[in-house]
Amino acid sequence: xxxxxxxxxxxxxxxxxxxxxxxxxxxxxxxxxxxxxxxxxxxxxxxxxxxxxxxxxxxxxxxxxxxxxxxxxxxxxxxxxxxxxxxxxxxxxxxxxxxxxxxxxxxxxxxxxxxxxxxxxxxxxxxxxxxxxxxxxxxxxxxxxxxxxxxxxxxxxxxxxxxxxxxxxxxxxxxxxxxxxxxxxxxxxxxxxxxxxxxxxxxxxxxxxxxxxxxxxxxxxxxxxxxxxxxxxxxxxxxxxxxxxxxxxxxxxxxxxxxxxxxxxxxxx
Amino acid sequence: xxxxxxxxxxxxxxxxxxxxxxxxxxxxxxxxxxxxxxxxxxxxxxxxxxxxxxxxxxxxxxxxxxxxxxxx
Lengths: 269, 72
What we know:
Order of helices and strands of chain A: HHEEHEHHEHEHEHHEHEH
Radius of gyration of chain A: 18 Å
CATH architecture of chain A: 3-Layer(aba) Sandwich
Strand content of chain A: 15-25%
Shape of chain A: globular
CATH topology of chain A: Rossmann fold
Largest sheet of chain A: 8 strands, mixed
Helix content of chain A: 25-40%
Strand content of chain B: 25-35%
Structural class of chain A: alpha/beta
Largest sheet of chain B: 2 strands, antiparallel
CATH topology of chain B: Alpha-Beta Plaits
Distance between the termini of chain A: 52 Å
Distance between the termini of chain B: 11 Å
CATH superfamily of chain A: Thiamin diphosphate (ThDP)-binding fold, Pyr/PP domains
Shape of chain B: globular
Radius of gyration of chain B: 12 Å
Structural class of chain B: alpha+beta
Oligomer: heterodimer
CATH class of chain A: Alpha Beta
Number of helices of chain A: 11
Number of strands of chain A: 8
Strand order of the largest sheet of chain A: 2-1-3-4-6-5-8-7
Helix content of chain B: 10-25%
């Protein structure tokens, strides 16, 4: 086992529930490296909702809340306000975060509470067998869209920015270095940080939507669709159709953060 | 040259490490681990530049690259 895995994983929870070639493991890999680099394991609390994404915290040997579907951000809000000194990182999925969890996502961003929300986005409800999700591409055939998805996918990053999130980035599992850099910035950022991580799901999205269960092929597709933000900035929406814009998309430091305001008012009282 | 260690207990045979390697250092072996996955093996260790792309991509953290001392 890799020394960082040896140091940080909860051994009795192993093996990972992730399928062979699932991108979620790559995200956990990047996250653990960042935790090691920042040296924050003793001040770290992790929260997950429901879904393959939300199992990531369980495998880390630290305080973990494995909560209800869609409610990770709600639980994380309570956790952060109870002990603001801790770094609270939420692992959620596309369905968990912007499907059932959409409301908590909006308000977490609006409140600018100091959480780091990492959304493992495979564009499908994977754990339950491959149903369409809010980020499933249009026309995709899934278990609940046998004639093709009629709906357009949601841009979670755009929603996060407009709701008030103060750090927003998007990366993919095909960019492990950029992803680690983004996670590091997001954790260090004081305020609501949101990272959309496009991740391959070989078993469900791979087979149903992309025609292959081969992880390397799926990763190649993700990489080809990706485009750096500075390149995308000069392009029209038509040119960006179907592309994944990666990098830091938004950052600001002047909005008040919720736990600071709460503790400020408690001190004054 | 580097030492590449593959953990055959946790490897799930996805072969992303083989795919990511820019120097074709790794290849699929004909050995299956206890879970039945075809594990990768180090084929050309002398070509390894310790870029660690295999380490970074591995969804199971089952591959470790150690750069040999004289390159440090």
